[in-house]
What does this fold into?
Amino acid sequence: MSGRLKTILIVGGGSSGWMAAALLSHLFQGLYKIRLVESEDIGTVGVGEATIPAIKKFNELLELDEAHFMRLTKGSFKLGIQFNNWDRIGSSYIHGFGVIGQDLGWLRCHQYWLKMRLQGEAGDFANLSINTAAALKNKFMPARPDMGDSPIAHIAHAYHFDAGLYARYLRTYSEERGVIRTEGKITDVALRSDDGFVEAVTLDSGERIAADLFIDCSGFRGLLTEAAMQTGYEDWTHWLPCDRALAVPCSRSDNFTPYTKATAHGAGWQWRIPLQHRTGNGHVFSSKYMDEAEAERILLSNLDGEQLAEPNRIRFVTGKRKKVWNKNCVAVGLAAGFLEPLESTSLYLIQSSLIRLIPLFPDGGSDQAYIDEFNRQTDFEYERVRDFIILHYKATQRDDTPFWRYCRDMEVPATLQRKIDLFRVNGRIFREDEELFGEESWIQVLLGQGIIPQGYDPLVDVRSEPQIVQYLGNIENVIGKCVDVMPSHADFVARYCDAKAGA
Ligand code: FAD
It folds into this structure.
């Protein structure tokens, strides 16, 4: 880039392209000329329908009205993810968003629960999280921050929505804010001969589009960052061996859950995402351990509604681009990297990349310091999310298939091993800097995956046993009463954001 930045070209119109277009057009308010090129012939990946609560921050930045957004994307609410058959066949736990119980003194609630568990007197850990307790009863309501100390003030929610409708929604939003969309297939990417910066793209129509900054949202191929610039890719398949997915919608069942389901199979797992008009399903699996026909048979025999389309077949390599921002090209979405959707983190990683870009936005001069800082923060974020996902595979007692034996026996990154080792002793967990998943998330997944600490924090013994019993009992009691008065998820959606009511 030389001189002041004036033009931005976004390549790709999937969720990442339109999320980029929406945020940049909203924030910069016409300061830059923003164009987006997409090709209907090539299409989008067509999945990406479960989110985490951070998406609310993105929607707030765009100043979206939640009910309107939910109606138009035919969305449902999400309180967490249920993991079935991960630790053992038949085991089940929920990673609920938000807090667990209430801290007491210096300690998190789980420490007191661990003591009672060691004595064989603990209740169900699920009853200490309002998100989990409500999810298990198919109840939902958003947090009421005005309710002070009540668990209802601390409900944390995210969304499930239709990926196609989401992109369409953001497209309308972006076009209203001046983004110019061009339909066409990019057939050539020109790099500057002296420094390798991207200069322009050429469409099949012959049109040549130059820009100062390029946002590569072109999907797995990374049309600019990889195919043209050869940035390089860090492959994490040895830690996350799944490399294929089959996705298929089915008709909606009456079981309208306010949570995503992730059910482990012999060489991967199956998702279930309830929307208002259909249920999304997919089987993520490792082609080294299972062939596609078998994966398809398993997927289709585990639908709880009528199959509505042929399966969409997707191949991927888990990992990330060596430099997510390279010269004047920032890769976003699948072009930047991919971590399987087990914890619904991909749309979040798009959002966080975009939000990270704003305070480091290039000005067209010497931007290398910004680029290095952006890449440092991005690497940290991807690696911490990667560790959290690996945990689900590593911490298992399953040994029924070669896939699970491989996962159980594999070496994991030292950063993850440290967390597991610390927790195993007496349940201590430390959030590292601004890593995405907080202590509550780690605790629920570690316990859910069968890592039960040998002891508990010595500070627990400052309280007498009757005090602890009363404290845990109170939390369970209050949460139980709150859940009892919450509406069902189906009733809440019908009242608040029924898609049939239109825009
Ligand atoms: P794409 O959707 O692939 O879009 C690429 C765009 O680039 C398209 O518009 C295409 O037309 C355009 N393009 C490509 N080449 C050219 C060309 N030559 N000329 C012009 N245009 C071109 N994320 C979540 O947060 N939650 C989930 O539950 C979840 N589930 C997933 C399940 C699976 C199996 C997979 C694979 C991903 C999942 N994701 C999920 C990730 C999520 O789908 C993606 O992060 C998201 O859809 C963004 O994709 P994208 O926009 O980067 O790429």
